[in-house]
Amino acid sequence: MAGGRRRKFLVSKLYSFACVRPKFEEDHFQIGGPGFSRVVYANDVDCEHPINLSYGSNYVSTTKYTLATFIPKSLFEQFRRVANIYFLVSGCLSLTPLAPYTALSVILPLIVVIGATMVKEAVEDWRRWQQDTEVNNRKVKVHQGDGDFDYTEWKNLRVGNIVKVDKDEFFPADLILLSSSYEDAICYVETVNLDGETNLKLKQSLEVTSSFQSDFSFKDFKAIIRCEDPNASLYSFVGSMEHDGQQYPLSPQQLLLRDSKLRNTDYIYGAVIFTGHDTKVMQNATSPPSKRSKIERKMDKIIYLLLSALVLISAVGSIFFGIATRDDLEHGKMKRWYLRPDQTKIYFDPNRATVAAILHFLTAMMLYGYFIPISLYVSIEIVKVLQAIFINQDIQMYHEESDRPARARTSNLNEELGQVDTILSDKTGTLTCNSMEFIKCSIAGTAYGHGVTEVERAMARRKGSPLINELDNEDHEENHVDAKSAIKGFNFKDRRIMNGNWINEPHADVIQKFFRLLAICHTCIPEVDEDSGKISYEAESPDEAAFVIAARELGFEFYQRTQTSISLHELDPMSGKTVERPYRLLNILEFSSSRKRMSVIVQDEEGKLQLLSKGADSVMFERLAKNGREFEEKTKEHVNEYADAGLRTLVLAYRELDEEEYMTFNKKFMAAKNLVSADRDEKIEEAADMVERDLILLGATAVEDKLQVGVPECIDKLAQAGIKIWVLTGDKMETAINIGFACSLLRQGMNQIIITLETPEIIGLVKAGNKDAIAKASKDSVIRQISEGRKLISSSSAQSFALIIDGQSLTYALEDDVKDMFLQLAIGCASVICCRSSPKQKALVTRLVKSGTRKVTLAIGDGANDVGMLQEADIGVGISGAEGMQAVMASDVAIAQFRFLERLLLVHGHWCYRRISSMICYFFYKNITFGLTLFLFEAYASFSGQAGYNDWFMSFYNVFFTSLPVIALGVFDQDVSARFCLKFPMLYQEGVQNVLFSWARLLSWMFNGILNAITIFFFCTSAFQHQAFRKGGEVVGLEVLGATMYTCVVWVVNCQMALSVSYFTLIQHIFIWGGIALWYLFLLVYGAMTPTISTTAYMVFVEALAPAPSYWILTLFVVIATLIPYFTWAAIQMRFFPMYHNMVQWIRLEGRADDPEYCQVVRQRSVRPMTVGVSARLDKLHS
């Protein structure tokens, strides 16, 4: 019977399956106008109309550069940095006689630094090019003419081609669906690459092309498609197809987008309309917002500060030089004859002292350039890439079940991970698993299901209730059903209705209708495993799958779906046997966020028409008939209990329809469905509203979205670290509050400030329907509640508060004149939960926190609805979970589970922040130390422009002799181990308060550099100035003094590094001591070269320095004398004024890490008292 009817009731009768024969309305009249000018000649690529050829190819490139643009664009990127511009100008000036050194010695290091960064850019772009090549060379079947299809590469596709795509293949371009392997030309599409949604979408071709189901049928096929121009809208499409002289309107239902995948359909035929960068996925491929860390922005300010200092000392030196030059003549003779003024026309001419001073200023600007660390940027980039590799390789953040490691998708923000002040988190799929389990239900006013949720366990612990022991005993008694719990999506235990026992219940007929509704009212697609025969389900959401699985386990197995029917294996209560029952599927009224319900209309074997509906309690109870409320009070009571237990609830109801009522509805419904106008959705909802009334209540379902493993412990640790946590969720307030208790975000005794518009006054205005009055009263109510909350917080400083606000109130709280008040209230609370919040509200809240607090914010989520929040935050963390990869693709860091956030922030974040901070401070220290010795020698030589060192000594200082130890520090150093980072989360506050990169710390390092430079210069000059250096009594020359000072500088800055390192590895030893050894090796090799190359370094080490005991003694003395002040200060600071990490280092040193009392004393020195988390709860109980 059912088989015969499938031919009559085509898919055009189904709501979820698109409109067939839509009318030409509003939007279609725009075709041919601006924005709607595209014309495609389908299957007529080589006709006399060359318009197809004018469209772009299907070749896609996501690379940043091409061979032609790489050098200019990459150089432009490099010279956006002010330091690099300075070195470029210096390099150009070094080609003039003004230069105090050879041009090559300046230009070569710049080329090395710029070249290294360009190589890194080239490697990254090469990887992108490889990915593009793999995609562009994929194969697809294309019509070659005469009904023959053959494989060709994606990049060769042209607009107008007819392609054949097989099951589980990606669509190579944007296509118009012409036909498929199904009789009604439908197909199922997975769009996870586009919008992150894993549920399947259903598409259907026009009826006129649905019969083209073989290759040969396209031999003579011709069509002209007119449609909108390329745009980024994934969910809209306007076009028309001309075939055999007839016009047919096209809608999004016929559009198959590139990078989506064909599922559950053997093949489809489609016409290419958009190719390459014209496709909608590429139109949406905008670059994520550029994010720079606060440290990097501060580093720019330091560079400007040093440049200002450079200009200042150059100006001071030039003034002194000008004065000395003006006064140089005495009785017609030059005082400074050794400067050979007779060989120059301007530089030392006493009569042109002003010009000489100006020229000296340019010389000084080049000479003192070593104050600016040329290799700083490239070193930091190398370090950050290596840090990201270590994050990616951390086995402690690898999720074995899903085979997903942590992945730092950008290395720009590593140090920001150690400075997070506020975390804004999604709930479903982020704190929870987004893996729903059917655990309880209420049928005919009777509650079924003995499962215990994690929220119930947390509530029982909170109240000291014996509930847990009782429930655990019940679980023990029901061991015979334990095997069932292994079924994904089903964790239901109740002997009364399992194993067919429901037929003995008082309301067995209601139970039968309840589970039959669960088995029919959905959009799931069954998939049968050919080997085992087991049925699995492709569902739009985990909830849907859980309902269908629950129905199957309780005797109502959904096993087959066609375009017009659903078939079940049901337990017949009369015979006690399983029977097959087909139901004709007439209409599907789909779920939407505004409707909050879903319904299907079916016809059973007896011809009865039924509407089966499930939805949120807020919309379902008001739609019940007077005679359908028999179990209403009990069901409401159970729904509230389920919400308190943290469960997601849906209410189930049905009604019977007569033929006349259905025909009236269907006529109006199909007319609305076939509209292509702006009010289409509104008309559809009006039609659905006609029949979704006078329902008879069956009961309610309760599914549990379990907390992810380790979430409460992770939140506890993050709270101990002083990080504030906000949860932004779409759940109802009761569910969100109870999840908050379960995950330790809330605790007993915490004062709850609840802002809601569910007040009698507002509800009364809503019923009256005056929108202006509702808006004004709602805003006033929100402002009043916020003000009361702020007064409450200010009057009670000893207590902790939690703020809970619903989405409707949040709308008004985020308005310009209210948001600052709201933020001040939220900052004063230990926890903030925003319920019923939309994706846009999540992004706006994130922006408010980021801009209002001016501190680092981190957003974490797993779904496409979290993308705005992730991109708005300083750091976006994506959970690679069950909702696709959209959040991951928009994130800066991807992890598999929320609990890994603990290690990501407290360990890697703390390490990265400390390493980058120390590295930058050290970089400026070592450059100031080196640069200031140049300035002091310049002053010593009456600002003559003479460099104290050999040209190549200066050039290689940053590149070879001192850079590698800094990189090792940035990659390997640890103030404390990972175990201690987690044991003492308060360490994290060093980053939040930015104590390691404050101006005070930066200036103290710079001051240390100044002291070191003065010590080195004056000790070296004083030791050599009046002492014989050779056997003949000669004093040292420039080459010996320069080499000796340089040796002292190399030793001092490398030994300073050794004193600064907290955690030595073999690599650090090699780099630190190897840098010093490399200096001596270089001096040997360079000094052995011909004097035309080595100049002042010729044989200086072999013949002058090495044989002289004074050289070695002076080096040792200067190194010790220079480092003693720092060593003394560090020892005093560590002993008497320890920072957090110093305190933990003392604990480790004294072996008291396992002494709980001592550790508690240290922990209590944290920045703020604990108000959130397990520890806070325990502390409160103890007190």
Automatic annotation (TrEMBL):
<feature type="binding site">
    <location>
        <position position="591"/>
    </location>
    <ligand>
        <name>ATP</name>
    </ligand>
</feature>
<feature type="binding site">
    <location>
        <position position="866"/>
    </location>
    <ligand>
        <name>ATP</name>
    </ligand>
</feature>
<feature type="transmembrane region" description="Helical">
    <location>
        <begin position="923"/>
        <end position="943"/>
    </location>
</feature>
<feature type="binding site">
    <location>
        <position position="866"/>
    </location>
    <ligand>
        <name>Mg(2+)</name>
    </ligand>
</feature>
<keyword id="KW-0460">Magnesium</keyword>
<feature type="transmembrane region" description="Helical">
    <location>
        <begin position="1109"/>
        <end position="1132"/>
    </location>
</feature>
<feature type="transmembrane region" description="Helical">
    <location>
        <begin position="106"/>
        <end position="123"/>
    </location>
</feature>
<dbReference type="GO" id="GO:0000287">
    <property type="term" value="F:magnesium ion binding"/>
</dbReference>
<keyword id="KW-0472">Membrane</keyword>
<feature type="transmembrane region" description="Helical">
    <location>
        <begin position="302"/>
        <end position="324"/>
    </location>
</feature>
<feature type="binding site">
    <location>
        <position position="427"/>
    </location>
    <ligand>
        <name>ATP</name>
    </ligand>
</feature>
<feature type="transmembrane region" description="Helical">
    <location>
        <begin position="1002"/>
        <end position="1024"/>
    </location>
</feature>
<feature type="binding site">
    <location>
        <position position="730"/>
    </location>
    <ligand>
        <name>ATP</name>
    </ligand>
</feature>
<dbReference type="GO" id="GO:0045332">
    <property type="term" value="P:phospholipid translocation"/>
</dbReference>
<feature type="binding site">
    <location>
        <position position="648"/>
    </location>
    <ligand>
        <name>ATP</name>
    </ligand>
</feature>
<feature type="binding site">
    <location>
        <position position="731"/>
    </location>
    <ligand>
        <name>ATP</name>
    </ligand>
</feature>
<keyword id="KW-0812">Transmembrane</keyword>
<dbReference type="InterPro" id="IPR018303">
    <property type="entry name" value="ATPase_P-typ_P_site"/>
</dbReference>
<dbReference type="GO" id="GO:0140326">
    <property type="term" value="F:ATPase-coupled intramembrane lipid transporter activity"/>
</dbReference>
<keyword id="KW-0479">Metal-binding</keyword>
<feature type="active site" description="4-aspartylphosphate intermediate">
    <location>
        <position position="426"/>
    </location>
</feature>
<dbReference type="InterPro" id="IPR023214">
    <property type="entry name" value="HAD_sf"/>
</dbReference>
<dbReference type="GO" id="GO:0005524">
    <property type="term" value="F:ATP binding"/>
</dbReference>
<dbReference type="GO" id="GO:1901703">
    <property type="term" value="P:protein localization involved in auxin polar transport"/>
</dbReference>
<dbReference type="GO" id="GO:0005886">
    <property type="term" value="C:plasma membrane"/>
</dbReference>
<dbReference type="GO" id="GO:0016887">
    <property type="term" value="F:ATP hydrolysis activity"/>
</dbReference>
<feature type="transmembrane region" description="Helical">
    <location>
        <begin position="1070"/>
        <end position="1089"/>
    </location>
</feature>
<dbReference type="InterPro" id="IPR006539">
    <property type="entry name" value="P-type_ATPase_IV"/>
</dbReference>
<dbReference type="InterPro" id="IPR032630">
    <property type="entry name" value="P_typ_ATPase_c"/>
</dbReference>
<dbReference type="Pfam" id="PF13246">
    <property type="entry name" value="Cation_ATPase"/>
</dbReference>
<keyword id="KW-0067">ATP-binding</keyword>
<dbReference type="InterPro" id="IPR023299">
    <property type="entry name" value="ATPase_P-typ_cyto_dom_N"/>
</dbReference>
<dbReference type="Pfam" id="PF16212">
    <property type="entry name" value="PhoLip_ATPase_C"/>
</dbReference>
<feature type="binding site">
    <location>
        <position position="836"/>
    </location>
    <ligand>
        <name>ATP</name>
    </ligand>
</feature>
<feature type="domain" description="P-type ATPase C-terminal">
    <location>
        <begin position="888"/>
        <end position="1138"/>
    </location>
</feature>
<feature type="binding site">
    <location>
        <position position="426"/>
    </location>
    <ligand>
        <name>Mg(2+)</name>
    </ligand>
</feature>
<feature type="binding site">
    <location>
        <position position="426"/>
    </location>
    <ligand>
        <name>ATP</name>
    </ligand>
</feature>
<feature type="transmembrane region" description="Helical">
    <location>
        <begin position="1044"/>
        <end position="1063"/>
    </location>
</feature>
<feature type="domain" description="P-type ATPase N-terminal">
    <location>
        <begin position="40"/>
        <end position="104"/>
    </location>
</feature>
<dbReference type="InterPro" id="IPR023298">
    <property type="entry name" value="ATPase_P-typ_TM_dom_sf"/>
</dbReference>
<comment type="function">
    <text>Involved in transport of phospholipids.</text>
</comment>
<feature type="binding site">
    <location>
        <position position="842"/>
    </location>
    <ligand>
        <name>ATP</name>
    </ligand>
</feature>
